[in-house]
Amino acid sequence: MMRRFVNSLCASRLLRRGMLAALTGCAALAMSAGAEAQEIQLTGPLAGAPAVRKLRLHRAGRIEITPSASFTLLDEYQRTIMPGLRVMYHPTDWLGFGVWGGYGIQTTTSLTDELQVKAIDERNCPTDSNTATDTACKLTAVNLTRGNLAQDQLGRMQWVAAPQVTVVPFRGKLALFATLFVDTDISFFVGPAVIGVQERAPCGKDNDGNTLTDRPCAAQSSFQLESRIAIAPTFGVGWNFYPTSFFGFGAEWRALPFAWNTSGFDNAGSGNDEAFPDTAVNNKDRQFRFNSMVSVNLMFSLPMKVKSSD
Amino acid sequence: MNQVRVGLLVAAALLAMPLTAAAQPKKAQPKEINLDEEGAEKPAEAPTEGEGAGAAEGEGETPSGEGEGLGDICKIDPSACPSINMDEAAKRDINAEMYAVQQIYALRRFRFEITPYFGITMNDQFVAHPAPGLGLNFYITNVLAVGVNGNFYAALNSPSNFNFQTSRAARVGIPITEYAWNANANFSYVPAYGKFAGFGDFIFHYDFYVLGGVGAIATRPIAVVDPDNRTFEYKPRLSFHVGGGLRIFFNRWFAVVAELSDYIFFDELENPGIPIGNDANGNPKAQDPTTWTAPETSFTNNVQAQVGFSVFLPFSWEYRLPK
């Protein structure tokens, strides 16, 4: 601006009134103008500007209600499909507090189906294992029901409730086929989880190691499930998309690591490191599993109007 | 001579003005920043859209300095003051060439991508098949590439404790196999491209890609039913490859990659039964290799999670595309 002003002055009145004075003045002005331009070059016009302007704040000050469906991963015996709900409040766009919960519905894996057919149905073991003549029936009496494998002994997650803190460090936009675009963010969450677990009831010995004379594991009556509450950490990451100001969708991966007996087998309790069967099923047969699941979320935010940053 | 004095006085007064102006906004002056390559060449121009530090996210914005500039012109020379109705001008239809995400940070067209990675099994609880791998791609366009990839599994296959415990508890032999190598020719397509602001402070770019291809995988059964008699050799089998992944760029030639790939093939499993008796030559049938494998092949999905990094060559290129 200053340079243009000087140029217009130099080109008109001063030039007509005194060539010498004008030349002197213009030369001096050019020097100072040059010095000022150099300073601008050093600082730059975008210095101090925020990385992002006019950012739509999809979370700040809003309550988010999220129906979800979760699917467990890497299941050995039973898959769990968990319809659920998450309610969060975000005091800022990058921080939120809330709770997630779901109820589990189980389906068997192909391994369970194979075991049911080949190890139980086709083997046709008698109800009283003492009368068994088949060696396999005698050896598997502690580990395999003579009825329905899934109903009698496989562990399952019945429900989960998890208060959680959510942090949203990454916020951006995504272009699909270079034409459609959508606001997006990546969130991380962590919290404690309360899990309602059903697993095979103790038999042979209880969790304290006392012998249960009335519940030998080889008896068919010992094949029943018992409920308990497990406490575990839960954490994960989500990727969310916001096609409108009040509706979004996304997917998240969640871990629920804790120890439980998914098979109902007698895997441990005796020998070196208690790594061998002891003809008893109790908490020693629980194994640590990094249970993980993927959730598909539909997010509704209230109030419906979204704010923008500066 | 008087004219000369007057001229010198005017020049001296004008000299004082820029010095004062330079001192005035000392505290309001922006800090020094490290501008990116292109931006550094012309810092006084309007901010570029997209990747620049002032990129607009969301609804867009009007540069704040525009109105002030017109005002300055009017103060200096009222006759040159432009008579523009700004409201009317703002309502004009603008046929600007805009893209959902402006300024793709790392162009791929005519570049090679070299991707070393490591893969782990996602769907086989009985045997883990971890493998180092390498992918090579050449991008014909910015979104389409042809390439090859391969995995080296040999000596890294490991039957799990879960397999042992299930077999011991239920007395059921579960057929398992191990892999030696796998190689595929692929087409890759990049349908989605985006950028993230990290902690509201820095911007990084990413893209999604999908791929499909065909190749071969060498597998063999692990003898668990009759290990005394049975030994198996690796055999290559036709396999199909589908997958998708995410690439996060750290600069214009280096990115980290996370990919989920499914290698689909018909596998040969161990025969769960052992034939008894001898053949016509008096040899035990159990030692006949033709009885070692199951009569039917098994449809197998080897789903693999792969994590690695990508290097794009050449490292730099001439930026010609408008987006």
UniProtKB/TrEMBL annotation, chain A:
Signal peptide, first to last residue: 1-37
Keyword terms, alphabetized: Signal
UniProt name for this protein: Outer membrane beta-barrel domain-containing protein
Domain of life: Bacteria
Species: Polyangium mundeleinium
From TrEMBL, chain B:
Keyword Signal: yes
Family matches, as Gene3D superfamilies: 2.40.160.20
UniProt-listed InterPro entries: OMP_myx_plus_Proteobacteria (IPR030820)
Keyword DNA-binding in annotation: no
Signal sequence coordinates: 1-23
Chain residue ranges for the region called Disordered: 25-72
Tree of life domain: Bacteria
Compositional bias per record (Basic and acidic residues), positions renumbered to this chain: 29-44
Keywords annotated in UniProt: Signal
NCBIfam families with a match to the protein in the record: OMP_myx_plus
Listed name of the protein: Outer membrane beta-barrel domain-containing protein
